[in-house]
Amino acid sequence: MKEIRCEHCNTWTDGYQEYCGHCGGKLHEKYLNEIKELEAIELRGIPLIKLNPDAPFFTRGFLQVIRFIQLIFLTIISLIASMASSTVH
Ligand SMILES: [Zn+2]
Q1: Residue 52 has what pLDDT?
Q2: Is it the case that residue 49 has pLDDT exceeding 70?
Q3: Cβ atoms within 10 Å of 20's Cβ, excluding its own
Q4: Ligand 1 centre and the CA of 43: distance in Å?
Q5: Same domain, 44 and 63
Q6: Ligand 1 centroid, distance to 48 Cα (angstroms)
């Protein structure tokens, strides 16, 4: 059994459940939102590195840095793309 700390009541609860056994609050909310956000980007055909919630802290930090660089890179690309399309019209 994987114990995780509930984001709402701070009690340790079963991490395999969707909702906290103590307060009924939704678990993994932050993580799920992050996944949703990533999937929205991936739907546009851009592959991004996924963060594993079980990964050790330093790995997550490292991946977050890479993802940050990727996002900056994508922002620049989309800026160039919008500039290019505005000159065409
Ligand atoms: Zn709770």
Answers
A1: 66
A2: no
A3: 21
A4: 32
A5: no
A6: 31
DSSP-based three-state secondary structure for 5: strand
Write the Ramachandran bin of 72: left for phi over 0, alpha for psi from -120 to 50, otherwise beta.
Answer: alpha
Same domain, yes or no: 6 and 24 = yes
Residues 66 and 84 in one domain: yes
Domain count, the chain: 2
Residues in Cβ contact with 31 at an 8 Å cutoff, skipping those fewer than 6 apart:
51, 53
pLDDT of residue 73: 93
**Do 35 and 65 belong to one domain?**
no
Q: Answer yes or no: do 26 and 59 share one domain.
A: no
Residue 51 has pLDDT above 70, yes or no: no
Could you tell me the distance, in angstroms and rounded to a whole number, from the CA of residue 46 to the centre of ligand 1? 35
State the distance from the centre of ligand 1 to the C-alpha of 31, rounded, in angstroms.
Answer: 16
Ligand 1 ion: nearby residues, β-carbon < 5 Å: 6, 8-9, 20, 22-23, 25
Range 72-84 average pLDDT: 90
Domain extent for 74 = 51-89
Residue 53 has pLDDT above 70, yes or no: no
